[in-house]
Amino acid sequence: MSERTLRFLDLASAALLLLWAGMGLGIAVIAAPVAFHQLPSRELAGRVIGGSFRVVDLAAWFAFGLPILMSYGSRWLSEIKDTVEGIGPMRLWNAAALAALLICFTSAAIVNPKMESIRTRIGVPLESLPQDHPDRMAFGRAHRISEQMLGLRLLLALGLAAGIAYLPKAKAPEA
User: How far is Cα 135 from Cα 123, in angstroms, rounded to an integer?
Assistant: First the structure.
């Protein structure tokens, strides 16, 4: 694979990661505060923003999975080796991308279903429950974990997009 092709795949990977990070930040920083301020109830706002984040969670699989295929996979197919002894840029980059995918799996398979099951089980708006109600507290914990996982994925997306510049661009000379 030529260096020009690698550079193109790297730019496409960085664009996907930055696009996803922009979507996540846009919803978290702009749409969520507006929805919670403008919509008639926190329950409705939570459902709207929750639905938006489900789309962002789905897009995260592509935003982190495709760059692994394009940036790391293309180097693997071209047999470009990490010339650094120990943990080099390729291994570190790949580990960070796999960590982001693991967070995507945790969010999709554990945290989001837990939040939905709590909402379904109580059958009333969360704000109608007292602050010390076990279901409201459990939902709050799951929501905080969801926020933390989004923050970690945003940081990983930005770090991976920046880290693409440090990936090797050509085959290492054979010794």
Answer: 11
pLDDT digits (tens, 9 = 90+) for 82-124: 777 777 888 899 999 999 999 999 999 999 999 999 999 998 8
Q: Which residues contact 27 (CB under 8 A, 6 or more apart)?
A: 49, 52, 53, 56
Report the C-alpha gap between 44 and 64 in whole angstroms: 30
CA-wise closest residue to 63 among 173, 161, 171: 161
d(CA 165, CA 172): 17
Domain boundaries, the chain: 3-166
**SS3 state of residue 27:** helix
With beta carbons less than 8 A apart as the criterion, state whether 172 and 80 touch. Answer: yes
Question: Number of helices and strands (H, E) in the chain?
Answer: 7, 0
